[in-house]
Request: fold
Amino acid sequence: MNKPYHTLGFLLLVAILYTLLSIIVPGSTFRVDDFLFRFPKPFEQLAGDNIKIASSKTDSIQPDVNSKVKTITEESIPNLDSLYVEPVKASSDSAIAPQKNIVTAGTLHLEMPQGINALGSFISAIYRNSDEATTVRVLHYGDSQIEGDRITSQLRAALQEKYGGKGLGLIPIWNTEYLPYGFRVSLSEHVNVNSTVKAKPTQKPDCVLGSIAEVAPSNLYREIVSIKVNSKQSFNTLSIVSGNSDSSYALKIIVDGTDTLETQVVPYSKVKLVNVNLPSRFERISIQLRNPSTVKLYGLLAESGSGVSVNNIALRGTSGNFFNHFDSGVASEIYRILNVRLVIMQFGINVVPSNLSSYAYYQKLMEQQIKAVKRFAPQADILVVGVSDMANRFDGELKSNPSVEKVLQAQRKAALGNGALFWDGYSAMGGEGSIIEWVNSKPPLATKDYTHFTNYGAKRFGQKMANALLMALGNNNLSNDNQTTAFTDSVSYE
Reply:
């Protein structure tokens, strides 16, 4: 049996050998063939106040110089979204008193492809909508950076204030944990929901609005979805996007115990849109089905029946490579009946950690997604949002991941080369090293994984994006000048 001092002696010997290796190996790394071995400097880890931080150009954010910077321990993470477990809900901004207002130094223009009015369809729809009682819809797809409706909520607020409309839009029933404040959704055991990320290969083609729900057969009415709403949420229309079935099925909507709608759905097309007018005040909506065979449910939308509806479709862990896998017939029909005029693609944080020398493959992948949307929804304009800044430790220095700019350029080329708009999220944050200052800001604008925004940061990023979009919408000539405009706006956290 080993004695305690034997174990202690062994541990001391290992510590001495580790320290000697970290001192001997230049730059704390050495390479054998294609393998890179790294020995972090132990004394450098202890001297937290002496960590070098790369310079940044972020606008009007003062870092907390007295705070110590936590580092990411892994330099190559296949899926950063999978590590992001902090619950992020839109309600947090209203529940936390801000320490100060942040003033942005400029609004970055949307970048336009040469010779194309890439926002023309959306502009035409919203200005025509002012004379008609119709709804113009925006679909904002993204990874966990937009989870909890955080960035999307700022776009929605800005567009609805200017062009009308109200309501959350799409209710993400595949991720009820991250519903915005004021909503509670319960699904019955008879409903099987799978998001684009988790769906089986046979289900993925139907996940056009982020998920597919399949309702098991029943010869009697039974509740499949219950929605509880408090007075903070305002909408007067519930839209149900359902799919085909092998037989007719009956749909019933009960609002606060009162039957509001009962309709028979005949399986004559791939997609059916049912709109339900709601009373001015209510607390609970019950959706019930009587369906002899399985029914597909594509989505539920809380809206107002007119104006602009901006819909959050947050899919944790994805790089956005699913549009070309949609069933083109189903996607075309859903986009048509919903009058989708703008699709926003915001991805990239799950691509950067691969740290490749070239991201040409990702450029091609994004090109495939843009072309797919253009095929099944030619009426929709497309906006690609460039990846936000991400930081990691490289040779003892905390700085922006060099792959960020490579991924950004791949996104920019894919967008502008295929008739889509582009907005540089990285530069809008402040460019190189800005994520570090966002982490150290008071209040913090990013979390200490040096990747994801806090609620304050998401709100700020969303307001910057909203300003850029509103500026483009206000300029009917839409020039190809991609330079930053000297425009100042005050961003307050209320």
Notes: Residues 53-165+307-494 form a domain with the Rossmann fold fold (CATH 3.40.50.1110). The chain has three domains: 4-46, 53-165+307-494, 166-305. The first helix runs from residue 4 to 24. DSSP finds eleven helices and 23 strands in the chain.
